[in-house]
């Protein structure tokens, strides 16, 4: 949308960006290698350590996280000069948005007019809010005059707009035909944005964990200790976001004074320029990470072979060094926690617990309603085809954005108050936190649905009469809800514990940075003498601080849990009735 900047990126600018990416990778990859070693040690020690109590009660859904494909006609503000044009839009299951000239072009396998991954976008449905956002992109200083030109956004008010805004990429402006279509697209797009954003957070692979830790360590070296939403996206997208944040102030200072025209046209020109810079950085970052991939694979294999045989000795040496270092840093660490963390820890803990409790309660209510609805259809349906259709709809509940919105909304409601509590600690990742809660809601619903369908398919056989079948299905319902409640407790605790660490650990490390430097330097030689790449002074130090902080968190969370309540089990809401006729075998097989 809007006019393009008068001077697109030339070869000199592209070369400059290539050099910036090379510098980033040169400084980042050593952190990544270091964290890969630490991540492999962590995984092996976890595998060989004492077995934890029984974990999930629900069976794990075999369906990968996905977005339900959504498609339909929209109009798009596009062209030079911009005008509204009819298109046919398709949201793919992997969170990629494509648009075609018309439906037939899509159905015939034609190439799209355009496409984008939804990582980092925000979906807006208010035209006034979006126009205000454009005004803030290029603020006018006092005494400065800008030209006033016609603006299609103002001349032609849109009844059902859909704006996709990104801090570093070209904005996308769409319009739906009805309010119902607008809502459906908004929910679908929000699901795609979340799916693309949390790809690394959902992964348990050592490389993914190491990458996120390396990004945090790299940014701490740059002076950024607090977590924010920069880690949303793929590895290349994350590194691109890191560099764009570094480049943006200078780019803004160099470019904006030279742009002329109406303020909103300037904003459109600015977004076009930033989009070009982002695309160039992303291409170079992707190429750099691809080039590093063979080395990373080889390094992981070598680390596995060298760490696993000596893991016990490495862990003993780490504990010995940690014990000595703990004595040195205990006093300033306790002073920091007592003076700056303890007073707010219980408030943040309570807010996280209540947020996740509301989310899980909404999931449980939705699950119970789905099981009851399926039970009613089973009792009243004489059509095997209709019953299979209802079973399919039940199995698709976790991927239905309209149904799941009641759960997702509970996570969104807490953002404002939570942001007020955590910003003083340098934490700006409330969007990542909200996405994490929504991902857990979807995964837990998927696991519960898969468990119900499997248990129901196992117990409902033609050997049962109607009364026995009804009793069996009620037992399945009760078993699933009990398993759900058990898993909900674990999910709530792990969610709260993990995000409290994300909020407070960087803050504490930053507060102690000056007071513990001398102690860390004294231990540098002892750690190097061990000769393991998985052990570093800063890694051991971070583990010490994290361990002490976790003791505070666990004690505070236990106190909050004793004062609060877990999500309760909703009643069945229906009376048990004979199930006639019985379904064909494997009707409930998901």
From TrEMBL:
Ranges of residues in domain PH: 68-196
Stretches of Pro residues bias are at 580-590
Which stretches does the entry tag as region Disordered?
A: 557-590
SMART domains registered for this protein in UniProt = PH
User: Which residue ranges run through the membrane?
Assistant: none
Q: Which domain of life is it from?
A: Eukaryota
Q: Which PANTHER family match?
A: NIBAN FAMILY MEMBER, PROTEIN NIBAN 3
Q: Which family does it belong to?
A: Belongs to the Niban family.
The protein's name is Niban-like protein 2 isoform X3
Q: Which organism is it from?
A: Enhydra lutris kenyoni
Q: What is the lineage of its organism?
A: Eukaryota, Metazoa, Chordata, Craniata, Vertebrata
| Gene giving rise to this polypeptide | LOC111143967
